[in-house]
Design goal:
The chain is an alpha/beta fold. Helix content is 38%, strand content 21%.
Length: 478
Amino acid sequence: MERLAEEIRRRAGEAGPRLTALRRHLHRHPEPAWGEYLTASLVARALQDAGFRLTLGANALRPSARPRQPEAAFCTAQSGRALNEGADPTLVACMAGGLTGLWGDLDLDSPGTPEDERGPLVAFRFDMDANAGITEATDKDHFPAAQGFASCHAGCMHACGHDGHVALGVELARLLGGLRDELSRHLSGRIRLIFQPAEEGARGALPMSEAGAVDGVDVLFGFHIGFKAEGPGSLICGTQGFLATTKRDVLFSGVPAHAGAAPEEGKDALLAACSAVVNLHAISRNGKGGTRIAVGRLEGGEARNVIPASARLFMETRGETTELDAYMAAESERILRASADLWGCACEWRTVGNSAGGGSSPELARLIATVAEAMGGWKTVIPMSGFGATEDFACLMSRVQASGGLASYLQVGTDRAAGHHSDRFDFDETCLGRALELLARLAVRMAGGGQEDTETETESDMEFLDEVVRRKGIHVQL
């Protein structure tokens, strides 16, 4: 196994130029939620070339589980642009209607292995979408602009590092696929790489989960560049404190009237919406934990001399737990209805995104720390950290944990030019090679049932191995 670890290190080092090139290509061609046709087609082709068995389209993402279906015109425009930028037409056709999620499986078990003797199913999730509504900085002080790989799409930018995540997933597939014969001699089970659309807005994980993306998964890893991991060489092995969220678009409908001649005939939808905004922020806090609410956008009215007949607000609630977010969502519904009634208007809303709360499995985070320490090269290894934000990986994580599996969310530190979701966001790409080696080592470690070297296992490692075997009845090949 030591020789295998050295081979992983060598291949991860060789992948550096490819990681940078692919990340920059994706950065220049960002795609918003449900429009990731170019990105997904590049991923799908890479998975196939690496020997992974592909699942995509409606088999990888259940359309009915999406909180809101994308407009047909949007899908047509996004797929057409992707084709013009080099996407594979056959693969794009498989993703019609914004079904841009996919995963690939690398089988390590011998053909014909009985189900009860198969090794663990180890999965990694990578998010693909860019940030809609952000136009990237173009001045020469901004590194992507100076180097010619800034976004070529106005109003869309990779401002959260998902371009780096996808590049890592593609190179992880290449690395593991290239070692398949060697891995099959020592390990068992399957390695699954999940590429998820629509993470921004918490929309993509649930429909992929409903399509079976994490069914039967024993160990699941999520990943992010930066965020709470500050500076190059820092690693957070597990994350707690994912905030649950519910995101809604709200429509108030009233009655128009002349604002000067007959204001009494109107029902002011904009006033109803304004009343709702003020009172939504007056929802009582909850003694069981932290809660959040935000109305990020309010619009309404037709003209300065017309009583507004309609108004829209775009809001979200969050809670430290799924139950606390449910409390905030229920209270917000009560206030929306009351505000509409107060001004004689109607009110309706639709949920456009949601995610559960949760946290990483502590025993898995501890093992990640063990693997990272054995790998070396890290300045700081933090077993567990808080998050204080929403990531719909929590939907996949909670599903795996509920079925007896283990899951953890890693964060790899890097230097950043600006904060996430800024028009000047960029990160130091040298973090990618180190991250690739770590993910590959974790894949090998987990496909071995949690055990890498029987002569160097610590007591905590053996406890982890026993726990995995107990929970899922995994056959461990030592």
